[in-house]
């Protein structure tokens, strides 16, 4: 159903031509969004004249879900306030988790230190100097128990930012073993594991990387296991955020993540699962950057593209399988060390865009994150920013308040078309796994990152305080910077005690059964849970995958 008649559009076109000649009377410099979409000076019904409202936009809670996945959106349930927490030992981080919950956070969001993220124990030589830095250190089931002590995991949702599928297997297994020891049924657990093979093979780097096709297999194992055993758990969070931070525009960020989701669905269909048995629990993770209206349109367009693929290509019948549910973190790469309090404004505006775009949960970056993990003071400002958006601005009182804006609707349609074109580019490369194996995706990211850095350096991309009215206080910091607690020594001592007290033969048998599952093609998750219950360490579990699947080198990228 077209909104405007052809007669009305013709009349507006005529008025526009007269306006440009008699009222505007000047040439306007060209402008584009951050993704290169040309921006007109003014938008009118002419720019969305071909739009069919019911087919292209619709009503909230109904396909194509452009206006939101729930019919009442935030009037029914506010977005989850899910601030990141992660530093030091599990005991240290537990205090921050409880601090955030006591001050109004409505979900838990755990980030791990680099050794944990890469699958190394704290006593591994490759972990030296990084234990407990920029995330919490986790080595065993005992650490998971300490991390969530007095945290009601059966009543709130928990996001485990596990990045690599191999680490997801180990950490989720420990989390489930903890729940079992507490007597909490798996069916009561709500949360998310990140579990994205692109984090291992494309975005992150490490001394040892599992080959893409095997990392992708582990990713799919987790999704399959969760679909059968954890009905309230989001088995994967397709990570557009880190793609964007590494070097993509808004179009590529969404397209690459959806291409991964599409490949996952096809693999699980090949394994004999029904699309509606697992798709309702697929989730996504977006980075909201500086271009306010483009980021809002990106969120709306992502819902349109995913529902179209789920329905038309994957055969979904359940509307929930077509939902694009996503968490948002405001842009870390946009934060500056100079004049750090400017970051409060940046993150607040980006967080507002997330809400106007219909996010299900949100983390707003703290102003000091360009220096360190947030102090309690900075974390509280971020949490309060979310609460101000929820209860003081009024933006949650109506669904999709920017729906119908000529500019936003035009951008939504344009971004949706460009996202679909980029997904087809990936398909032309042989699909997402093949695009990683050949280095095609690495080149895409490297080229864009280089272009963006040059734009900052030559002033084409302006950053207040950095290259636009540059700060005269460069190098001077007037904020408290978080001091990481000493962690490495404590974690090593706990590991030594664990290895002395546990049943070593039981651990060996559990790890051997896990390796046999790798070889047979069975789903590895049940065997990983048994290994976690036997108190195998994170490093021991992930080493099984490195030993069995072998290692892979990043493709060499030349600019």
- CATH topology tier name of the largest domain: TIM Barrel
Q: From the alpha-carbon coordinates, what is the Rg to the nearest angstrom?
A: 24 Å
What is the architecture of the largest domain at the second tier of CATH? Alpha-Beta Barrel
Tell me the structural class. alpha/beta
How far apart lie the N and C ends? 48 Å
Q: How many β-strands, per DSSP?
A: 12
What topology, given as strand order, has the largest sheet? 3-12-11-10-9
What is the mean predicted local confidence, pLDDT?
96
> Strand content of the residues, in percent?
5-15%
CATH superfamily membership of the largest domain: Methylmalonyl-CoA mutase
Helix content: 40-55%
Let me know the largest β-sheet: 5 strands, parallel
**Unreliable parts:** none
What is the count of helical runs?
Answer: 22
What shape does the CA trace take? globular
The overall number of domains is 3
Q: Which CATH top level class of the largest domain fits?
A: Alpha Beta
Describe, in plain words, how this protein is organized in 3D.
With about 550 residues, the protein is an alpha/beta fold. The protein has 3 domains: about 5-50, no CATH class; about 75-390, Alpha-Beta Barrel (TIM Barrel); about 500-550, no CATH class. The protein is built from 22 helices and 12 strands. It has helices at about 5-25, 55, 75, 90-100, 115-120, 140-145, 165-180, 195-205, 210-230, 240-245, 250-270, 275-280, 290-315, 340-355, 375-390, 405-430, 430-435, 440-455, 490-500, 505-520, 525-535, 540-550; strands at about 30, 40, 80, 85, 110, 160, 190-195, 235, 235-240, 280-290, 325-330, 360-365. The strands form 3 sheets. Strands 3-12-11-10-9 form a 5-stranded parallel sheet. The longest helix is centred in the last third of the chain and has 23 residues, at about 405-430.
């Amino acid at each position: 159903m077209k909104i405007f008649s052809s007669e009305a559009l013709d009349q507006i076109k005529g008025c526009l031509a007269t306006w440009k000649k008699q009222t505007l009377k000047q040439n306007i410099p060209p402008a584009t969004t951050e993704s290169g979409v040309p921006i007109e000076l003014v938008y009118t019904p002419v720019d969305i004249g071909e739009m069919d409202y019911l087919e292209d936009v619709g009503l909230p809670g109904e396909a194509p879900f452009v206006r939101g996945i729930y019919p009442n959106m935030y009037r029914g349930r506010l977005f989850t306030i899910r601030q990141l927490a992660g530093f030091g030992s599990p005991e240290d981080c537990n205090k921050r988790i409880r601090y955030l919950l006591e001050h109004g956070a409505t979900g838990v969001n755990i980030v791990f230190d680099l050794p944990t993220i890469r699958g190394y124990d704290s006593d591994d030589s490759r972990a030296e100097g990084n234990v407990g830095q920029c995330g919490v250190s986790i080595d065993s089931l005992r650490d998971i128990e300490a991390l969530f002590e007095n945290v009601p995991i059966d009543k709130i949702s928990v996001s485990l930012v596990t990045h690599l599928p191999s680490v997801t297997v180990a950490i989720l297994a420990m989390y489930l073993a903890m729940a079992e020891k507490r007597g909490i049924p798996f069916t009561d657990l709500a949360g998310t594991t990140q579990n994205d093979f692109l984090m291992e093979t494309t975005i992150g780097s490490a001394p040892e990387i599992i080959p893409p096709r095997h990392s992708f297999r582990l990713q799919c194992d987790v999704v399959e296991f969760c679909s059968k055993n954890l009905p309230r758990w989001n088995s994967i969070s397709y990570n557009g955020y880190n793609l964007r931070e590494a070097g993509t525009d808004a179009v590529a960020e969404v397209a690459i993540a959806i291409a991964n989701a599409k490949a996952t669905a096809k693999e699980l269909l090949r394994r004999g699962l029904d699309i509606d048995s697992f798709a309702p629990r697929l989730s996504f993770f977006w980075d909201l950057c500086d271009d306010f209206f483009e980021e809002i349109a990106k969120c709306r367009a992502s819902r349109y593209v995913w529902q179209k693929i789920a329905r038309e290509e994957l055969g979904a019948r359940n509307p929930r399988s077509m939902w694009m549910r996503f968490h948002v973190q405001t842009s870390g790469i946009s934060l500056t060390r100079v004049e750090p309090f400017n970051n409060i404004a940046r993150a607040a505006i980006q967080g507002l865009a997330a809400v106007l775009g219909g996010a299900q949960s949100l983390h707003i970056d703290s102003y000091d994150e360009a220096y360190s993990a947030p102090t309690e003071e900075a974390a509280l400002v971020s949490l309060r920013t979310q609460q101000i958006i929820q209860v003081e601005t009024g933006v949650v009182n109506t669904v999709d308040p920017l729906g119908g804006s000529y500019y936003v609707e035009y951008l939504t349609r344009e971004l949706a078309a460009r996202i679909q074109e980029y997904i087809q580019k990936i398909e032309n490369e042989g699909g997402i796994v093949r695009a990683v194996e050949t280095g095609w995706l690495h080149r895409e990211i490297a080229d864009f990152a280089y272009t963006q850095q040059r734009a900052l350096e030559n002033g084409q991309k302006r950053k207040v305080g950095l290259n636009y009215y540059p700060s005269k206080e460069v190098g001077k910091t007037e904020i408290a910077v978080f001091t990481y607690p000493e962690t490495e020594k404590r974690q090593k001592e706990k590991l030594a005690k664990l290895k002395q007290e546990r049943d070593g033969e039981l651990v060996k048998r559990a790890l051997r059964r896990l390796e046999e599952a790798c070889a047979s093609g069975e789903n590895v998750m049940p065997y990983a849970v048994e290994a976690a219950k036997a108190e195998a360490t994170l490093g021991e579990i992930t080493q099984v995958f490195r030993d069995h699947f072998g290692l892979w080198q990043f493709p060499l990228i030349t600019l």
